[in-house]
Amino acid sequence: MIWLRQYRKELLVGDVVAGIIVAFMMIPQGMAYALVAGLPPVTGLYASLLPALAYALFGSSMVQSVGPMAITSLMVGTSIGAMATAGTPLYELLSQQLALAAGLVLFLCGVLRLGFLSNFFSRPVMSGFTSGAAIVIALGQCKPLLGMAHGFSLGAINVPSTALGFASVALLLLARYALPAVLKPFKGWVAEVLPKMAPIAVVVGAALVVSLMGLEGAGVKTVGAIPAGLPAVGFVPSAEYWRPLLVPALAIGFMVFLASQSAAQSLALKRDERIDTNRELLGLGAANLASALSGGFVVTGSISRSAVNYSAGANTPLASLISALLIAIILCVPNAWLSLLPMPAMAATIIVAVMGMVDLTTLAQCWCHDRSDAATLLATAAGVLLIGVEEGVVVGVVLSFASLVWRSSRPHIAIIGRMPGTEHFRNVERYAVETLPGVVMLRVDSAMVFNNTDSVIERVEQELHAGGPALKHLVLVLSAVNMVDTTALLALTELNKQMRAHQRFLHLCEVRGPVMDRLKHSKLVTQELTGQVFLSAAQAFEYLSAKSSD
Amino acid sequence: MIWLRQYRKELLVGDVVAGIIVAFMMIPQGMAYALVAGLPPVTGLYASLLPALAYALFGSSMVQSVGPMAITSLMVGTSIGAMATAGTPLYELLSQQLALAAGLVLFLCGVLRLGFLSNFFSRPVMSGFTSGAAIVIALGQCKPLLGMAHGFSLGAINVPSTALGFASVALLLLARYALPAVLKPFKGWVAEVLPKMAPIAVVVGAALVVSLMGLEGAGVKTVGAIPAGLPAVGFVPSAEYWRPLLVPALAIGFMVFLASQSAAQSLALKRDERIDTNRELLGLGAANLASALSGGFVVTGSISRSAVNYSAGANTPLASLISALLIAIILCVPNAWLSLLPMPAMAATIIVAVMGMVDLTTLAQCWCHDRSDAATLLATAAGVLLIGVEEGVVVGVVLSFASLVWRSSRPHIAIIGRMPGTEHFRNVERYAVETLPGVVMLRVDSAMVFNNTDSVIERVEQELHAGGPALKHLVLVLSAVNMVDTTALLALTELNKQMRAHQRFLHLCEVRGPVMDRLKHSKLVTQELTGQVFLSAAQAFEYLSAKSSD
After folding, report:
1. pTM for the whole structure
2. Closest CA to A377 of A402, A401, A400, A403
3. Residue B518 Cα, gap to closest chain A Cα (Å)
């Protein structure tokens, strides 16, 4: 709460404007994501009240907007959907309990400083996951968009709903792609923020159309009665459901953290702030506990809302508190207009929102830079679509680590020589360099650890074999070796012994400080090494060149 | 079979002598390891016949002695013990079927060229596993050593058996530790090979003692009747047991390969041969199929026997064929003396053999070089002892990869400067080096991949922050970076953008060839980089030094 103690009145205008704008963004979004989670729309509004306060108290980002988010809502829906039927009191209870469990997971991760676990998720995995989940969410909204009550068939399509839904999609797409260009003449944040108000404008407009044209009688469903007033605080968790909720809570807790973290980080970069990962975990944990206790469900920092918050001028969490206050007021004053929001228009806002999450840019970047990353991305997306949301992430994480291990087990090894007239050494296959007769200088471009020891030794033996009896000196250039584990040390010791038996000399050079700190206690370096340890490749080259010309 | 076509008569004497010696080593060992596997002793002899022939046909090592081995026998016992009772026909059938399944696994790995999987097992894991398994085997032999029939209590101890067992242990220890010194005056292989004949001498001696003193009546158990003649060839596998045998077959197949591989490799080093890993897999697969089809159980290359084989002068697989022939003859001639071998003496040979496998040397080496490797070793051994043989290996492999990942996520990063008067750059904390004002040169000592991107960027931002506005140039020295994956590339791209916003320059240097091959297609390097790409740190230093003195 340092921000509150240091609050200056110059900050107030920005915070108030941003607070109002985000509130109007939050209302349709919160209700829509509650629908994605299979919950009554009002719970999405509840989840935008106390969590914002809790995050303001404990979180570390100044402009983060905490509330329901598409992907975590999808995960809530798929997890709870396996244990209860949507619309039943048990379903709602479990959604609160899941938020409680996820909040505890986040809190615990914060206390245990486990923020580093986010390193397990590479960008390709996150991108594939987001794209896959976006498609799953969009597919799930096709039924309400087309006004289908039961089943999924052409006959079940309701024409007025479909017309309303498609019109909403068209308007939202126009607002996203055409409006910024139209608004360009306006300066500052207007062109950036105004298009984000399109969802509320479209759903309110659609509600007007429905009530004016009496479309409810023609089969267009609406959001339905929204209970007036603030949510009841507190609930009684079900003891028997802690166990089945454990794995979903871990998965969702992690996703909450990752989503929020990437939002907070991208904005912190712009604002030149630093995010404290572990305080961030505490803030998100507190927000989810608050959501559970006030009739909400899982919440996280939203990239899209936080960006609007920032662009609209938010300076401190006060902006989010103003949003929450505004939503609370709307809940307390007569709010019949909310109950008239038509489902096809709500579905349209969801579909258009998640369409923007399908991330082809990262796929293209992966494809250009590293096909294996592209494969991981596609496999993660396919896993999410075909196996399941959480399973898809597991597929991605396993694949990304497998490729890491696979690569580290096949290190790049280059024979190097001296660039004429310099002290630089380069790969003989890439540069015209000088080499010495009877000497091979091998640069190992990887840590030397158990899973690549065999392939390093095999390569060394190949070179020794190829060099024949004339080859007397092998120089291992360890400039890129940041680790020599026991397996590699023992293998080097054996190599050295074998070379001694053939009157050959094993030299080391460019040994990194941390590696030398370990090696200097080993028998290999203190007693057994047939050759020498040189500071640099240049020194080794000079010494061996002097020796061969003796 | 190249060795047979190229056979020269000079090789014959060595092969015959080694063949005879290994046969006499094999007889008590084979029978003892059959007991470890819970099988009739004669199966250990059967497992020394056809497998030797099959390996001679398909294997790649010239001096490998293939047959039963302590650890694989233990694994056979624990796997089959969970499915059937020792002594029943089902138990024997399953042991043959397991050898068949393990043989198929090995064959398949050879055909699919999966030999590289052995890289997954670090030396600490192998050492911890071997030590743990040795202790498990030794503990399992305490009952026969002490002549206990049922249960495990002081009252169940049979005094004559215990006396015989302890006397055998004492003699075997004397032979191992004192005999080599006594035999030193003899030249050549005698001092090395003769002590290995101790087990057969001790068990035959013990058999004489038992029959002369009539100790069988006093409760000393003997090996019992050995069926005369060669084993029947062929058997009918049980269809319903393929599934439960799958996991044990995979685990045992792998262990067969690892044991044999380390035996073959250490001898190939001495003999200056190369082992073809995938042909080795084919040879071991064929040996296990042969064992299954001829009444045997899982076999592998034995380090101890192969070393004796080599020391006694074996030149080609003919030595193993001669051993097999000799054992076959012993099975066919009257062999009542084999049935009199007393169990306490057999247990003594097993205990003394596996005592030598408890590997404290590697533990000490790990402890000195890398505590994390020592912890992995101890955890593997503890896992084998407390959880189970196969589970222990899994613990070890998982731990070793976890520590690999953990380390790669916390890379060493050094600020470097120029060693005065040279073109070498070293860590400012370790050497007295020159640095430039307004310039930071950071050397990242690790691949830049998703699981360490955050910590690299965090460190860079720390330095930028610490440098304040005066800091204009950041040079990333990538000499130790063998990989920049998409996650790291995107993070660098963002870093570069952020630095541009602060009128700072990001330079790269010492980029490895394979890394540059990828980076040169990226937007970062082709268009966006605020600074330059230098071939060497020295060039970067000169350029920036000229610039700052402008």
Report:
1. 0.79
2. A400
3. 6
